[in-house]
Amino acid sequence: MKIAVIGAGHVGGNLGTRFALSGLEVRFGVRESKPELLARARGASASAPAEAAAWGDVVILAVPGPVAVEVARSLSKELEGKIVVDCNNPLVWKDGPVWNPPAEGSLASAIAAAAPGARVIKGFNTFGAEFHDNPRGCDVFFAGDDAAAKSALCELATRAGFHPVDAGPLRNASVLENLAMLWIHLSTVGGRGREWTFKMQSGL
What we know:
Elements: E1 2-6, H1 10-21, E2 25-29, H2 35-40, E3 45-47, H3 49-55, E4 58-61, H4 65-74, H5 76-79, E5 83-86, E6 91-93, E7 97-99, H6 107-114, E8 119-122, H7 129-133, E9 139-144, H8 147-159, E10 163-166, H9 173-187
Parallel strand pairs: 1-2, 1-4, 2-3, 4-5, 5-8, 9-10
Antiparallel strand pairs: 6-7, 8-9
Helix pairs in contact: 4-6
């Protein structure tokens, strides 16, 4: 499957690079050329966001949370029928991260409303960019209503070195966004740093 990554910051750049180095077709959707990123993500290409979204089978939205819904709305035609992964978090900072969802109840639900033809999945949002770059088998939670889309995304995540976990329907995107608030809190004001992730443990 072809993976389009809209955004090339720490999360989008690292995640797209990880997929590219795992042998998958990747195209970054960016407004400006990114020669250093393309040199690191060997085999990846870049084009304007709308062109990348139209090209991809899977479209990863890795843009700042405050603009994610508007970006999805602007690309709604290109996103129709595509697996769209929301890896952003809606927050404000008040002595630490505070979840600040839109009226739809989660950022993922707002994106689904802005691009109604898309198959929206929440994921890749509960850990830092260091693990997007080098997952080390970390758990990645996916919430969405399209079972086939989640299954396809789980296969891609496994190939890239993640351990996918089905986190239920799209309504659980709000749970994953709150889990991200806890990770950000512990990693910053909690003083634990960024080199850790939430991990499911069995066999107790």
